Fold these 2 entries.
Entry 1:
Amino acid sequence: MFEHLCILIKDTIVLKAPKKSTLLLRMIVLTFAMVCGIYICSMCMKQISTRTNVGFTNVQMHKKPCEAPNIDPREKRYVHYPNPKTFSRAECACNPVRYFAILSTQRSGSGWFETLLNSHANISSNGEIFSVKDRRSNISTIVETLDTIYNLDWLSSASKNECTAAVGLKWMLNQGLMVNHKEIVEYFNTNGVSAIFLFRRNLLRRMISILANSYDQNAKPLNGTHKSHVHSPHEAAILAKYKPTINATMLIPNLRQVEEMVAKALEDFKSTRHIILYYEDIIKNHTKLVEVQDFLKVPQVDLKSRQVKIHKGSLSRQVENWGDIKKALKGTPYESFLHADYRM
Ligand SMILES: *[C@@H]1O[C@H](CO)[C@@H](O)[C@H](O)[C@H]1NC(C)=O
Ligand SMILES: *[C@@H]1O[C@H](CO)[C@@H](O)[C@H](O)[C@H]1NC(C)=O
Ligand SMILES: *[C@@H]1O[C@H](CO)[C@@H](O)[C@H](O)[C@H]1NC(C)=O
Ligand SMILES: *[C@@H]1O[C@H](CO)[C@@H](O)[C@H](O)[C@H]1NC(C)=O
Ligand SMILES: *[C@@H]1O[C@H](CO)[C@@H](O)[C@H](O)[C@H]1NC(C)=O
C-alpha cells in the first residue's frame, strides 16, 4: 500500500515543483519530502518487524502442532512439549511431558523411592541436584537449574530417553527449598510443576538412620567406602551392626523441630499441585505406587528397586540406650514411635 503512496508523493513533487521556484515553495517541498521520508521509513520498519513476527509464528506452528486433543483445560498448565537442545525427542516429540519434584527430608526413603520411579521407562528423576551448593546459591541459579532439568537437558545417570513422559528431581527441604519457597512456589505454579511430598511417619527411625549414616560417613565399614544405600542383605547387615546412642535430652525438641519443618513445607507449598506420601505407607501398600503413576499420568507398570533396607526389625535392638529413649518418649505425643513397626 505504501508503494502507491510513494508514487503519489513523487507525482505531487514533480507536478508542483516546476518553474515557481520561490524559496518558500522549495522549503515546503523539502519539508514535505522529509516528512514523507520519515513516514515511509517507519512503515518499512513496521513491515519488517511484522514479517519477522509472522516468521516466528510460522516456525512455532511447524514445530509445535503438539496438542493432546482430549485434554482437560485445567490440566493444560501441567502438560509440556519440551524441545531439548542436547538431543532430539524423535518419534516422541509430541508425547506430553509432566514436570515433578520430590520434596523430602534426608533419610526418608527418597533415594529408594527415586530408584523405583527410575525403573519406569517413561520417568526420569535426576537425583539430588541441589545437594551442590552453587546450584542453590540464589533464586537465579535455582531457576536456571530447573529450566535445564525440565527442558530435558540435564545430564545425569537417570534414565533419560526421547520417550520420557515425566521429568524431575529429588529436593531436600534444607537445600534452598524452604529459604526460597515464595519464588519456587511461583515457579511451580507458572511452569506447571507438580510436587511429590515424601516424608517418614516414624521420625525416631529416621533419626537412627541419620545417626548411622553420619557414622558411616567416617567409619566406612564397607571396604572403606561410604554408602547411604545398599544393594545386598550382606551389606545391610554390616551397616546395621552399628548402634547409635541418642541424646535423650535433645530427643523431643529434635522430633518437634522436624515435625514443624514438615508442617511448614506443606503450608508453604499448599497452592501447588501436589501429593503427600509416607515412606511407611508405600512399604505397606504397593497400591500407593499406582497412585503416584496416576498422579504423574504415566502408564502403570510394576516399579522395582534393587535397594535393600538397612535397619529392620524392632527398634529396641537398633540403639544403644533404648531404656533412656523409652523413658523420654513415654506419655508424649511421640510414644507411638517406640512401637510402630512394619514388615518388608
Ligand atoms: C547468584 O549466584 C551465582 C553463583 O554463585 C552468582 O554468579 C550470581 O551473581 C548470583 N546472582 C545474584 C542475583 O545474586
Ligand atoms: C513410554 O516409553 C515407550 C518406550 O520408550 C514409548 O513407546 C511410549 O510412547 C512412552 N509413553 C509415553 C506416555 O510417553
Ligand atoms: C570388599 O571387597 C571384596 C572384593 O571386592 C568383596 O568380596 C567383599 O564382599 C567386600 N566386602 C564388603 C563388606 O563389601
Ligand atoms: C545432650 O545434648 C545437650 C545439648 O546439646 C548436652 O548439653 C548434653 O551434654 C548431651 N547429653 C549427652 C548424654 O550427650
Ligand atoms: C492402599 O493405597 C490405596 C491408594 O492410595 C488406597 O486406596 C487403599 O485404601 C490402601 N489400602 C490399604 C489397606 O491401606
Note: DSSP finds 13 helices and five strands in the chain.
Entry 2:
Amino acid sequence: MARNIGADGRTVYRAVITQTNRVGQQWTEREGPYSKLGAARARVTFWRNYWARHDGTAEGHVEQAHTVWAPVGEAADPIAAARAAGLREAADAIEAQLRAEGYTLDCVCESCTPCLLRDYPTMFRARADAIHPATEEQEQ
Ligand SMILES: [Zn+2]
C-alpha cells in the first residue's frame, strides 16, 4: 500500500536506536522516515522492550527532517522552503501595506495603486507554490 510520507514541506521523523546485546556488542540503527512523531517514538519503545526481554538494552531518540524532494538524478534545492517562504512574506507585506494605506483590494478601476499592485501577491504565491508547496498541517 502506498504511503504518502514526507510530501514537500512536511516534517518527517526517524528513530535512532542504539542497541546492546547480551555479550556487549553495540550498534546504532535508524528506522524511518515516518510521517508521525509517535510512530518514530514507538520504534524506540519497541526496541527498548525487545532488549529488556532478551538480556540487552536499547536507547534511542527521535530526529526530524524537513523534506525537499527531487527527481532521481536531479539535485534537490536545499533552500526551496526558505525561498518560497520569502515570496509568501513579500506577498503578505504588499497586501498589508496597501491595507495600512487605506486601500481595499477589491477595486475594479484597473488604474489605482491597489489595482496596479494586487496581482503581485498572487504571482508571488503561485511562484512560491511552484518552488515549494505550502506546508500542510503537521501531524503529531
Ligand atoms: Zn482601482
Note: The pocket of zinc ion is lined by residues 107, 109, 111-112, 114-115 (CB under 6 Å).
